[in-house]
Design goal:
- With 152 residues, the chain is mainly beta.
- Helices cover 5% and strands 38% of the residues.
- Strands 6-7-8-9-4-3-10-11-12 form a nine-stranded mixed beta sheet.
Length: 152
């Protein structure tokens, strides 16, 4: 029997359900790229990856915004038309997985903590990563073979 996770936007007009568990390889992670900082209005973005088809919109509508990343790959963000909360996104470099904005989950404590951070070279200097997290200078999907630096 698979797990079910639910979540939604700030105003409650958008609700979703995820069936199953996060992707075993990717799980949850942190991104320090400029686009994630702007998308979240914070120092970094936190996301959890699920198989693309695990996502079901159960209430409301999502508006899509597509942009090109700093390495010229498409990213399609999906957000609430009313309050603007980014709920999910798909990315060209990993089209089989769907990113879920961690803060939109009703019960995020059911998800394992982030195990990696990407674009660490762009991290705000006062950010401290959790212990034993893999930190990549860029995005290992795009820069295959990049070795992580372990936070201690």
């Amino acid at each position: 029997m698979s797990d079910t996770h639910e979540g939604g936007c700030l105003c409650g007009k958008v609700r979703y359900r995820l069936t199953g568990n996060p992707d075993e390889t990717e799980g949850a992670g942190i991104c320090h790229c400029t686009n994630c900082r702007r998308r979240t209005g914070s120092a970094f973005g936190v996301q959890v990856f699920f198989p693309k088809d695990a996502f079901q919109l159960t209430k409301g509508e999502l508006k899509t915004y597509e942009y090109r990343s700093d390495v010229d790959r498409w990213v399609r963000t999906e957000f609430c038309r009313n309050c603007g909360t980014t709920v999910t996104w798909l990315a060209e470099w990993n089209p089989e997985l769907r990113s879920i904005a961690f803060g939109t989950l009703d019960n995020p404590s059911r998800i394992k903590p982030p195990q990696w951070a990407i674009y660490g070279r762009s991290a705000i200097p006062w950010i401290a990563h959790p212990r034993n997290i893999d930190v990549y200078d860029t995005n290992p999907y795009i820069n295959e073979g990049e070795q992580p630096k372990r936070s201690s």
